[in-house]
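Chapter review: from sequence to fold.
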Amino acid sequence: MKLTRPHFLTAAIAVIGISATLAAAPARADEWKKTYQVSGRASVYVKTGDGDVTITGADQKQIDAEVMSEGYKIGPNDVQVVESQNGDHVSIEINFPHMSWHMFGGNHRSLRVNVRVPREAELDIRTGDGNISTTGVSGKLQFDTGDGNVIANDIHGEIRIHTGDGRVEGHGFDGSLDADTGDGSMKVSGRFDSLALKTGDGSIDAQIGSGSKVASSWNVKSGDGSITLRLPSDLNANLEARTGDGNITLDFPIQVSGSLSHSAVHGKLNAGGNTLSVTSGDGSIHIEKI
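The token string follows.
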């Protein structure tokens, strides 16, 4: 039967309406969960190419893992969760399909990985394109993201943080911290025995808590940003501060060695000791007393 023009327009409008409804449909959610029992010190490895990862320490002797998605289906032919346990070590890898034919529920896509771990644990957490958040964990801790922020609070031990393009924030650090970002700011506070902070293009704001010790050389460096360093009054170190295109201000008594200029300072904080190096290529440096 041949459609008349009014019938043809009605059919076209109906098709457009159906398409608009499908496009506006909310993304469907999918999830995967598993619990792992551990008897000793937990060791957790998480790797995902896309998505945010949250790690939370808790008073428990198990590891609770959860993967939640929108717009992705979790399954053998779609987003795959490859997991294993060997004693107290748990490994979780999220693999994405090469093609997007299995995407379902609309165009919005997101993935989140949530893991609850014992408070004493070793962590190696990696995401290619997502944020990492962690709180309440102590041990050897490593966080790596290619394009995301790292937010860490109340974590203790040997801590390593890297982000290619994001900021680093956290308070309540205790132990050693080695953190770097290619293009982002840093704001951290805690008690440190070892400290290395580096950003290629961002500011650094670091507050050093009471009881910190420059047990080995500390290094704080920004390629193109200001640095504010707040120190306890009893910290012992040999300070070396310099900036290529900025000023240095000191709210601290210092025994200057050599010449003193607005862009370079060398001297002792209190009794002196190991080197505290503070460098900015194109920014001001502020050394303040808590």
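Two observations follow directly from the output. Residues 5-24 form the longest helix (20 residues). Residues 8-26, 100-105 have pLDDT under 50 and may be disordered.
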